[in-house]
Amino acid sequence: MLAFYRARKAKQNTVDPSLYIQRGIDFASEFLPLRDNSLPAGNADNPLKRYFDSCSSGRTIWKWEHYFDVYHRHLSKFRGRDVRVMEIGVLGGGSLEMWHTYFGSQCTVYGVDIDPACRQYEGERTKILIGDQQDRAFWHSIKSSVAPLDIIIDDGGHEAEQQIVTLEEMLPHTRSGAVYICEDVHQSNQMFLPYVSGIVSQLSEFTFIPNTTETVSAVNKLQRYISGIHTYPFITVIERRDVELRQLIAPKRGSVGKASLDTV
Predict the structure, then answer these.
(1) What is the value of pTM for the model shown?
(2) 58 torsion bin: left (phi>0), alpha (psi -120 to 50), beta (else)
(3) How far apart are CA 127 and CA 108, in angstroms?
(4) If you average pLDDT over residues 232-251, what whole number do you get?
């Protein structure tokens, strides 16, 4: 079995990844699935979208509409809990109120912005932090004064280096089960997604451990703490595990038939 995996890994190392990247681009550009009109419409019961639609006055909120399904899918588990939220990019302050309404009275929200005028949005459970998200020294000072977070939403400057520095500094400063969201990744020359692809490659890393009865892979640091990375139009979501993963294992069950190694 060990020889099989070594041979497969050697074969993979001879492949030019750029050919497969282009192949994926070609497939996506011509993608045309069967139509299924039976699927339910999005936002049917989404309290975040309802809140957004009700804001005809007051503080400004500016979000892509399809984000609300993403938010609700990944963040609903925090509702009604003692949750710490950080949003980078305060703008008109409206989304700070939205998070309080969505998560409930135990929620604490940290708004981060480079504009000192955003301090006007500070309140009893809303703290405004002023600084440059591309400045690692700023994040070091934040981590020394702000407890580990449950949710981070990067809606700041939208430039790749800003997003990368923020992720590198703040993703480790989260609690178990945390969700990290990076928004507005949509420019044609945006390098955040290639950066995330590098992270994904580590999430998918396979290191075979010889075992007579089961297929086992060693767990690297990322796999131990990160459960998944999700990419949607313009938005990337990274989820931390609730419990550290100690091994990746593919046990075989049953006694009839022969399982192929290609399936594990």
Answers:
(1) 0.87
(2) left
(3) 8
(4) 92
